[in-house]
Design goal:
The protein is mainly α and about 1050 residues long. It has 58 helices and two strands. It has a two-stranded antiparallel sheet with strand order 1-2. It is globular. The N terminus and C terminus are likely disordered. It is found in: Cytoplasm; Nucleus. Belongs to the Integrator subunit 3 family. Pfam families: HEAT_Ints3_C, Ints3_N. This is Integrator complex subunit 3.
């Protein structure tokens, strides 16, 4: 084998990997499928090969999948066969290419950066062919591909991807306009990319982008208008381009020229931008890293993660434009759960502060500040979320003490943007900012704004401007009250670590509150935090389906309007039954042969809007009975579930209803766990839980594991009781998806309380729930070591409720460090004390590093020595002799890493010496056992002088045993009770038999002392005495 290079070497045909990387599972599977296809077609003509593949596909679902994936892989890896392989794929696929689309999405989301150049080129070619063929679902794939075009990246690969995707959109314009969401996503993407493509070398590409965006905005403006206020922000950035300037004039002065339904700029600015658009400008890798920082990284430990992100994505001058995308994503998409808000996880404002302070371009810095305040300008408490405006106020608040210049810059920007954003709308902007500040105080994000607006650290001119603009917020409360701040650990700004800010949210209704303050001996304040979530008031508004209803056919439109009429508050008791009747009529219309599938998306949008009230509040009844469960599933949306349950999977209507649910899932993700609840709670769905797998495969995700985890996560965030109710069924019905990793388990233990934990343990004990199995339990327990304390204790309690042998998980000891993993060590210790020690257990226990503060090994050995001394003695003897026979060079290392890797003789002796000391003043006779003494004698005979000196007390036990063995037989019979322990302390009480020959015993006991000082001649002395 050739020596491996440091650079990446392609080891497979699909992905680039280094020689040290493990084989990728997906690549391995695809290559296996290629092998199947080639074995079926080698040496055959095209016609014969096609017949062979067709015959194989007809054998079953697995053969169909293997052939399709094999042809798909050939398309990606062999350009010379791509055309033929794609043709065969279209002919052989029996699921509308759904399996292939799922794998394309998986590669785009997880493997795109690792694709070899040929595979990347072929993947784009394949997407183009799918679009040409009009394959259902190709629009979703194209949106995912667009997401891989990174903002602020001027590399040749990124520019090539941007141009090729644009060519697909331009070439297939008729197909494009059929998907309103794809039109809006494409316009949003290329308006943003235009900013990066302003150099002379890229003018041709930018002109193509301009022509495309102008074409879509003028021809399909209302499709683009769904973007909302961020469409205006993007258009502002490219307003100096001549064609865009003309569009701006129409936008401002002649809105009807763009669309009769468009009333003007204010219509866009008051519409909140969907998180779909904000997320589409971050690549999957960026999004994963950012979500990791905001959900897993502890506040104060973020520096290395930020430095990595900076090096990877923000190190060039062109990449500065990406900061706006990141800030808009953090404000509009990253909305932490209550559990995260109450923890010490890195807060959003700290990341935004870092992005602002590390910006190296004035233009980019100004755009970044606009991105931060953009939702403030036309904020409406009824439509917008407190989470969108919270980061800006917290950045200013927390920067006041360590970096007042940052706070001053942001406050100045907030004041000046009011008259300068768009003068004709100055009063609306002023009202939007005023609404934002008022809502911030109402939600108690900050107790009062006077300490921020009228702070002595701000210069006089700025304070004067703030008093002029916002007099209502510049007066201190009377009587004066302390304004408490959110506890701050550190914020990485200008690459410096800031001093800790003490305090917390002053919140009677929101965030943290502190009831007591204590000052410890060092003078530091100790506060007990109590978290209360920010509660947004739910205002029931009539469902608005105006944008969608005109796209429906007349019969369907009438039914939808009828449904809207009886779902509009206030509702009567009889309305639920009427809603179900109308919903059944709609389902019947969907199942008719002449139903147009292109209306599915529009109908799903209408239903999602009409049923939005059904997805609020708790699903599970307070008292669970058969009657209450049946009543809880008598909702109109459940009629789709019920119809699915009554159909056979080979029924044509079955797939139509699945498509309906998949579309509805895109509009309302909660539909997933509602389906799971229906399948468990409804009598009509008994034994139909596998239906969920068909639903998962029909969704855009296309993968059961991903879909299940997303749905359970949504359930966890909405209703913990329902999560616990569903858990037994989910684990029993989908063991391969739930038991192979700790993802679902972590979701559960992160939110349950002690009562729910006890209920789950009872389910396990009764055999209704299995949460661990032997092949994966060790990996899951290792994963849990990074979880919170209560989560770990809960995990161990659930594990101990199962009947899994300790030998299965005892290797976890190699991963446990006494300072970092006290939860796992304490649970393991309590369980080991109930077990009879086996050889593997003793070996693992002895292989722990020797540390003065780590009492784990000594405590369990002492317990076993008292309760299971015979078994423990034999196992320790085995380990001593086995390790004593190994080469000395393997036993000389004493680093913790080597100790974890292998048990050494020195470790065993160290642990035994600690055990000896712990038993010194007890009556335990463990070290008087023959196996232990024989083993020590064996080791002493071959070890070096350093070890003999270090463990002299331990080896002295063996010496006494050796001398005892060398006594005359008559003497040894007279003193059976003597033991090596006698030299360490008071002798045991003499028995009658001992006292008969006391003088002989005393005389004999005194003899070993002389030869002990001269070990080298002990054998000679022994023979002389005999």
């Amino acid at each position: 084998m050739e020596p491996s290079s440091a650079k990446a070497k392609p080891q497979g045909r699909l992905l680039v990997s280094t020689s040290l990387d493990a084989k990728d599972e997906l690549e391995e599977k695809l290559e296996r499928c290629v092998g199947i296809v080639q074995s079926l077609t080698n040496g055959l003509s095209e016609r014969e090969a096609n017949d062979a593949l067709t015959a194989n596909v007809c054998k079953g679902q697995q053969q169909h999948e293997d052939v399709c994936l094999g042809l798909f892989c050939l398309v990606l890896t062999d350009p010379s066969q791509a055309q033929r392989s794609y043709r065969d794929l279209t002919l052989l696929s029996r699921d509308g290419m759904n399996g292939v689309l799922v794998k394309i999405n998986q590669i785009l989301m997880e493997k795109f950066l690792k694709l070899q150049d040929v595979s990347r080129t072929q993947l784009v070619w394949l997407v183009r062919e799918l679009v040409k063929s009009g394959v259902m679902g190709a629009d979703g794939v194209l949106m995912t591909l667009m997401k891989q075009i990174a903002g602020g990246d001027m590399s040749s690969k990124n520019l090539w991807l941007a141009e090729n995707v644009l060519d697909v959109l331009l070439d297939q314009k008729e197909w494009l306009v059929k998907s309103a969401m794809l039109v809006a996503m494409a316009v949003y993407t290329y308006l943003r990319l235009m900013v990066d493509h302003g150099t002379t070398a890229l003018l041709v590409l930018r002109q193509k982008e301009v022509d495309f965006c102008i074409s879509m905005l003028r021809e399909r403006f209302m499709d683009c208008a769904v973007i909302g206020r961020d469409l205006v922000r993007l258009l502002q950035n490219v307003a100096r381009i001549p064609e865009m300037e003309l569009l701006w004039k129409d936008l401002l002065h002649n809105p009807a020229a763009l669309s009769p339904q468009f009333t003007g700029l204010l219509q866009l600015l008051t519409a909140r931008t969907s998180r779909k658009f904000l997320a589409c400008r971050l690549t999957p890798d960026m999004e994963t890293k950012l979500l990791f920082m905001t959900s897993r990284v502890r506040f104060g430990q973020q520096k290395r993660y930020q430095e990595w992100f900076q090096r990877q994505y923000l190190s060039t001058a062109e990449s500065q434009s990406l900061r706006c995308d990141l800030i808009r994503y953090i404000c509009g998409v990253v909305h932490p759960s209550n559990e995260v808000l109450s923890s010490d996880i890195l807060p959003r404002w700290a990341i935004i502060g870092w992005l602002l302070t590390t910006c190296t371009s004035n233009v980019a810095a100004s755009n970044a500040k606009l991105a931060l305040f953009y939702d403030w300008l036309f904020f409406s408490p009824e439509k917008d979320s407190i989470m969108n405006i919270e980061p800006a106020i917290l950045v200013m608040h927390h920067s006041m003490k360590p970096h007042p210049a940052i706070t001053a810059t942001l406050l100045d920007f907030m004041c000046r943007i009011i008259p300068h954003f768009f003068p004709p709308l100055e009063s609306q902007v002023r009202q939007g900012v005023f609404n934002s500040l008022t809502f911030i105080m109402e939600k108690r994000v900050l107790a009062h704004l006077a300490p921020l607006f009228d702070n002595p650290k701000l210069d006089r001119e700025l304070r004067s401007m703030l008093r002029e603009r916002f007099p209502e917020f510049c007066t201190s409360p009377s009587p004066p009250t302390e304004v408490k701040m959110e506890e701050s650990v550190t914020m990485e700004m200008d690459n410096n670590v800031l001093d800790k800010e003490e305090g917390c949210y002053d919140a009677t209704e929101a965030a943290f509150s502190d009831d007591e303050e204590e000052v410890n001996n060092k003078g530091k304040k100790q506060r007990e935090f109590r978290f209360q979530p920010i509660k947004e008031e739910i205002i029931e508004e009539p469902a608005d389906i105006t944008p969608f209803q005109d796209q429906l056919e007349d019969v369907m439109k009438d039914k939808v309007l009828q449904l809207q009429k009886i779902t509009t508050p206030p509702l009567l008791s009889s309305d639920a039954e009427n809603q179900c009747e109308v919903m059944q009529d709609i389902v019947d219309l969907i199942l008719e042969d002449d139903f147009d599938p292109e209306q599915m998306s529009t109908l799903a949008s209408c239903l999602a809007e009409l049923f939005k009230g059904h997805f609020r509040g708790d699903v599970l009844p307070d008292e669970i009975t058969e009657e209450s469960l049946e009543e809880s599933v008598c909702k109109p949306v459940c009629l789709v579930f019920r119809n699915l349950c009554t159909m056979q999977e080979d029924n044509s209507g079955f797939s139509v209803l699945l498509d309906m649910l998949a579309e509805l899932y895109q509009k309302q993700p909660k539909i997933g766990y509602h389906l799971l609840y229906y399948l468990k709670a409804s009598k009509a769905a008994m034994g139909k839980m596998s239906l969920y797998e068909s639903f998962a495969q029909a969704t855009a995700l296309g993968d059961l594991h991903t879909c299940l985890m997303m749905d359970m996560k949504a359930c966890q965030e909405d209703d913990v009781r329902l999560l616990c109710y569903l858990t037994p069924s989910i684990y029993s019905q989908f063991p391969d998806e739930t038991l192979r990793s700790g993802e679902l388990l972590n979701m559960i233990v992160a939110v349950i309380d002690s009562t729910q934990l006890q209920e789950l343990m009872c389910h396990v004990m009764m055999g209704n729930l299995v949460m661990f199995r032997k092949d994966s339990v060790l990996n899951i327990l290792i994963q849990s070591l990074d979880w919170e304390t209560f989560e770990q204790y809960s995990t161990w309690q659930l594990f101990l409720a199962h009947s899994i042998a300790m030998e299965t998980i005892i290797p976890i000891l190699h991963h446990l460090k006494y300072k970092e993993h006290p939860e796992a060590l304490s649970c393991l210790l309590l369980q080991l004390r109930r077990e009879k020690p086996s050889e593997d257990m003793v070996k693992m226990v002895l292989s722990r590093p020797c540390n003065h503060d780590d009492q784990f090994t000594t405590s369990i050995l002492r317990h076993w020595a008292a309760k299971q001394d015979d078994a423990l003695g034999e196992h320790i003897k085995t380990q001593l002799i086995k390790n004593n026979n190994q080469p000395r060079k393997r036993q000389s290392l004493r680093s913790s890493s080597s100790k974890l890797a292998q048990l050494t003789l020195e470790q065993i002796l160290e642990h035994l010496d600690n055990l000896r000391l712990s038993l010194t003043h007890t009556k335990n006779s463990f070290f008087s056992q023959t196996p232990i003494l024989q083993a020590l004698q064996h080791v002493q005979a071959s070890c070096d002088e350093a070890h003999k000196m270090r463990y002299s007390d331990l080896f002295s036990l063996a010496e006494e045993y050796e001398d005892f063995q060398s006594k005359p037989l008559k003497s040894r019979r007279k003193a059976p009770a003597s033991s090596p322990r006698s030299r360490k302390g008071a002798a045991p009480p003499a028995t009658e038999e001992d006292s008969v020959s006391s003088s002989a015993s005393e005389e004999e006991d005194s003899k070993p002392k002389a030869p002990k000082r001269k070990r080298k001649c002990s054998s000679a002395v022994g023979s002389d005495s005999d």
